[in-house]
Amino acid sequence: MTRSLRADTIAAVATAPGAAGVGIVRLSGPDALGVAARLFRGRADPGQTAGGRFLYGQFVDAAGEVLDEGLCLVFRRPHSYTGEDVAELQAHGSPAVLQGLLSEALRAGARAADPGEFTLRAYLNGRMDLAQAEAVLNLVNAQTETARKQATLGLSGAVSRRIEAVQTQITRTLGALQAMLDYPDEGVPEEERGGPLALAAQELESLIASGRAGHLANRGARLALIGRPNAGKSSLLNALLGYERSIVTSVAGTTRDYLEAGLELGGLPITLVDTAGLRDTADEIEAAGVRQSRRLAEGADLVLYLEDASAPRESADALPDSLPRNALRVQTKTDLEALWHDPAALPVSAVTGAGLPELREAVLQALLQDAGRQEVWLGSQRQQDAARRALEHVRAAAELPDDLAGYELEEALRALSELTGRDAQEDVIDSVFRNFCVGK
């Protein structure tokens, strides 16, 4: 893929594989409407139709044989998704029909689009910036309402507007520093240096903190349940899911291998991981399960460490030294007679459901604590890396004398321009669009 626009017309099936009621073949480029006219028979010629109109007719092959009937939507540049002339051929969603239409479009002069090439052309034609293009990908891949909302915000330009606000603060100080070179005896007033840089740093810190939430909204979170045998891990997993997914018995060590199950919690996709009980054992298989449990806990986004309130205190493990810092302590079996109480733990009962709403809320707060109530989250690792670099340069500029701070601020602006794509290298752009599907 390349950053430069190619003066050709591209075509691709724009709907998901498989049979459906409606399917779309999308064309974009200088001859998109001409190619559509060679495939379409109706009362009007797509090449002579104003933008924003749709035509009803038949789709035919080179020999004039009818492939299907449907609609041809016409978009004129620059008022289209790509900023070019665009035609969308809407037919029945039969794979045979769509592949036939695509083959005829290629025979009529189009070429097969690369993955993400329609959105790449939209970016190169100034219809969106790189942050918005990434939001398109996130929207296509959204599995939950939270992920959809964040992707929609990004597509609307909300992320870009926050970045532009930071750039404005940095540019204000950089301009004052450059003016100082002409009048070195006057220096830079504090309101033109310390204030704007402090605001820029604060906003960047807030955006970076949102990155974890954005990552979890798109990828999902792994939640590991660990504790001693019979601490209630499998029962709690079943209670959170609302159905019996894991075998529950009174026999200690029933779970020897880990088990995964998915659910949505507060709009976030969660993978629950039920693990083998933690204890010293001579059983080779169970010992392997214990080692695996510790590895799973280390790799989880959040750990629930379960302690049985109905068991004697002396039989309960103290917190393991290796317990990850991202752990919530949970006291289980509170429907039974409690032999002890831990005020630092969340009390729950998998039998009665007591404490489960509070546990769900605590899990969400722990996962999204850095995001707070922010409206916009950074949705990709690339965006987070660019924001971090910008923050490092802003902080460095704040510590340097006026005559040296300008370089750091220029680097901060360059990092932020990478985020929106205004100063991005070709390999950065390629890394974004190579993840797209064909047809978008």
Keywords, separated by commas or semicolons:
440 residues; alpha/beta; Gyrase A, domain 2; Four Helix Bundle (Hemerythrin (Met), subunit A); Rossmann fold; 3 domains; 7-stranded mixed β-sheet; 6-stranded mixed β-sheet; 13 strands; 18% strand
Structure description:
With 440 residues, the protein is an alpha/beta fold. It folds into 3 domains: 10-127, 2-Layer Sandwich (Gyrase A, domain 2); 136-207 and 379-420, Four Helix Bundle (Hemerythrin (Met), subunit A), CATH 1.20.120; 219-368, Rossmann fold (3-Layer(aba) Sandwich). It has 13 helices and 13 strands. The chain has helices spanning 32-39, 95-107, 117-124, 130-141, 145-155, 158-180, 194-219, 233-241, 284-299, 356-368, 381-399, 402-420, 426-433; strands at residues 10-13, 20-28, 40-42, 53-60, 66-75, 86-93, 111-112, 221-227, 259-265, 268-274, 302-308, 327-332, 346-347. Strands 3-4-5-6-2-1-7 form a 7-stranded mixed β-sheet, covered by helices on one side. A 6-stranded mixed β-sheet has the order 9-10-8-11-12-13, with helices on both faces. The radius of gyration is 29 Å and the shape is flat. The two termini are 14 Å apart.
**Mean of pLDDT:** 82
Total number of helical segments?
13
List segments where confidence is low: pLDDT < 50 over at least 5 consecutive residues: 249-256, 315-319
Helix content: 40-55%
Q: Give Rg in angstroms.
A: 29 Å
CATH architecture of the largest domain: 3-Layer(aba) Sandwich
Number of E-type strands: 13
Instruction: Profile the largest sheet.
Output: 7 strands, mixed
Write out the CATH superfamily name of the largest domain: P-loop containing nucleotide triphosphate hydrolases
Q: In the CATH hierarchy, what is the class of the largest domain?
A: Alpha Beta
**Global structural class:** alpha/beta
Please report the distance between the alpha carbons of the first and last residues: 14 Å
How much of the sequence lies in strands comes to 15-25%
Strand order of the largest sheet: 3-4-5-6-2-1-7
SSE sequence, one letter per element: EEHEEEEHEHHHHHEHEEHEEEHHHH
Envelope shape = flat
CATH T-level fold name of the largest domain: Rossmann fold
